Amino acid sequence: MRLRNLKEKETYINNCNYLIKDYKSNIGNWSKIFKNNNPIHLEIGMGKGDFIYNMALKYPNVNFIGIEKYTGVIARAIKKYPEALNNLLIINMDALELLNVFHKEIDTIYLNFSDPWPKERHKKRRLTSEEFLNIYQNIFKGQNHIIMKTDNLGLFASSLVSLSNFGYKFINVNLDLSNSDIPNVLTEYEAKFIKEGIKINYLDAIKR
Questions:
Q1: What is the pLDDT of residue 6?
Q2: Fewer Cβ atoms within 10 A, N terminus or C terminus of the chain?
Q3: What fold characterizes domain 6-207?
Q4: Mean pLDDT of the 150-172 span
């Protein structure tokens, strides 16, 4: 069932008890919001929520925050996963707002099937561009840690270059994640791609 109108989307948004609406007022206080000092992992572009919700179920001693720019998409995630988890929060926001929401609080960032922005003039919009890596630098708690999955080889190649130039070291790089022994929780896109025989590119990178 598609969310056909704004009223229906607002119903899901307004009634969700794990969606944070006043997110800019919590900068520096996310551990207090979770009521513990567990690591905080952030997914940028959570889509319909399959990955972030199932990660929270699998790893109860990690706090997860999923952000999604599009209200209609995040409403679909809420409709699909209405049950709140103690270690999961979601936010309807643009990644460009990150510096207004987090400060030295994030342990790991997940970038799953991000928009590849293939045209050269749009490369600054890629979530692994230097512009975004500079933003992440200020929200990581200590060691920078980025895990990325994508079906787009162009984005993957540019991300390897961008991350390397920024000082990241690669723990793991794999061009066929679904046929590897790397632990993996699927996104909704990923499940579809695997059925279609599309290979998934994966990287795990750190910067001390």
A1: 58
A2: N
A3: Rossmann fold (3.40.50)
A4: 98
